């Protein structure tokens, strides 16, 4: 039986799901986490390696002669040097679109955190604030209705399109900066230049890939084009924004709020956004719902089975 090694299985499956189907098709070893210096030793006898965030670049590939298949436990596959893998005859697969619904849901969880502050009021009321109030109601934050506001989206892939549909359901005006032509877009989405999108958006949500031309897409200059009342949301990739510039805009009241599930460095060490009052940061969990992780593992296992059967799927 071919040896199968999972280098960092804990994040996708901390124990509530099962890798058992892989045990039926190979000799399986699962590591919760793998340090860079451990990768080659742990994968040296494996024909199949699964990785989420452990890097398998050219140096590792060249020292793993038995390796025939790399399965990425994610949609993005920048952790693997695909070119080097192809040169060595190694199949690389990913798991596309498993988290679309969960990430789109997190976008609006963040947005509603800013506009409705339900957790803020729940915490206050546990401390007796409402009980001690002389009126039947109270509020000490702005409360904002989404209907009629403009929701801007950068990138209309699977997640961007789902976010657009939800924003439309909230009766928001949806606009997008996208490589798709205006004719390809649903009638409720207006195509804009980046400059127009920045200027018009009450809410701006980032869903584009991280590439040289999108790194720090949001910076001091582009923030200056946005409304000071705008809400910026990043559930894409941390480096799409310049953390220091966003923190500066928040402190200077040039941006109402920043919501993010991703940061440039993860886990963060000394990110200024962590101390900004109007920055709402979650620890890269938008993908991690029970349902999304179940889909992730099911597709990853099916990818392995398809490879063994000689009909690889989701190849990158």
What report would you give on this structure?
By secondary structure, the protein is of the alpha/beta class. It is 31% helix and 15% strand. It is built from 11 helices and 12 strands. The strands form 2 sheets. A 7-stranded parallel sheet has the order 8-7-6-9-10-11-12, with helices on both faces. A 5-stranded parallel sheet has the order 2-1-3-4-5. Strand 3 (48-51), helix 3 (58-62) and strand 4 (69-72) form a beta-alpha-beta unit. The longest helix is centred in the C-terminal third of the chain and has 19 residues, at 290-308. The chain is globular. It starts with a strand and ends in an 8-residue tail after the last helix.
Keywords:
12 strands; 15% strand; 7-stranded parallel sheet; 316 residues
**What overall form do the CA principal axes indicate?**
globular
The rounded distance between the terminal residues' Cα atoms is 25 Å
For the sheet with most strands, the description reads: 7 strands, parallel
Counting helices, strands and paired strands, the structural category is alpha/beta
Radius of gyration: 22 Å
Number of strands: 12
Please tally the helical runs, counting DSSP H or I stretches of 4 or more residues: 11
Question: How would you state the average pLDDT, rounded?
Answer: 97
Roughly what fraction of the amino acids lie in strands? 5-15%
Main sheet: strand order: 8-7-6-9-10-11-12
Show unreliable segments. Answer: none
What share of the residues lie within helices?
Answer: 25-40%
Order of helices and strands: EHEHEHEHEHHEHEEHEHEHEEH
Oligomer: single chain
